[in-house]
From TrEMBL:
Highest taxon of the lineage: Bacteria
Native species: Streptomyces violaceusniger (strain Tu 4113)
Protein name: Intracellular protease, PfpI family
Keyword Cytoplasm among UniProt keywords: no
GO molecular function terms listed in the Swiss-Prot or TrEMBL record: peptidase activity
Keywords: Hydrolase, Protease
Family membership: Belongs to the peptidase C56 family.
Pfam families: DJ-1_PfpI
Amino acid sequence: MIIVDAKVEVGGMGGTDGMTAKILLVTGDAAESLEVLYPYQRLREEGYEVHIAAPTRKTLRLVVHDFEEGFDTYTEKPGYTLPADLAFSEVDPGQYGALVIPGGRAPEYLRNDPELRKICKAFFDADKPVAQICHGPLLTAAVGGLSGRRVTAYPALEPDMQAAGAEYQDAEVVVDGSLVSSRAWPDHPAWMREFLAVLRTKAPVV
């Protein structure tokens, strides 16, 4: 099931002003491995330059969330390690055409980081493309970016999305203008397919 609101406007950063199309991916320790690595590699395959930002420049320790019989919720195991390119304090949002917010446990504590909150707000204020998945919307909710929007997220976050003023949809991907949401890593193909459709209009590779 795919829900799309085709309110994509022509313009934005990435090609129309001659700048290299760069994408910022924000994450931290305990982020879900697939939800970091899949968009990172898929976007690079398309020709985008992707920078990973975290609270500090360090080697991030990612995790694997999986679904196992007999468990009421997902399980967590150690995942891959990945170096962060930038600290949040070093990020200039104006240098990036789009933002990616993976899930895992990281968004729960990252939403309290004042530097990251400023970064996220800058992307929403400029109506640049934002891709969020799983628990990632906890971050965008914290900066008021979901009020009046249609989103999906990990199903357990439905009350959080409603509290943030969003209309929650239980679908593999929901597109509301420049915001592209998915529930979790099984939805990756739909998530990146729809996000790339937005990027090709608002932040194309040049």
